[in-house]
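User: Could you check the structure of this?
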Amino acid sequence: MRILISNASDSPLYEQIKEQIKDAILKEELKEGDALPSIRAFANDLKVSVLTIRRVYEELEQEGFVTSQVGIGTFVSTSNLDLLRDSKRRLVEQKMLDMIQTAKSLNISKDELNSMMDILYEED
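Assistant: Sure, the predicted structure tokens are below.
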């Protein structure tokens, strides 16, 4: 799992880390039962405070994405995967609504919009 954090981002460090872990779970880069690094090791790898990683793990556990076992470690739990997928879909739907409203205001037809979407989706 590769985590990229940016001091220039508007999101706090813990939020950036947490969202990337959730994305890795959604993309199945992290699977049910996979162990996350220890708080100390993860903090050292990312060059952040152990308090930052502790907060990430605590919030992920509260949201149901990981489980912690004292003295053993923190492990991925996919019990909240449907909720995560749904929240990601809502985000995309909102962006699509914005796009549709913009297209309508510019008199772009649904067919034109679909064609643009097809072209952009295939570019990768």
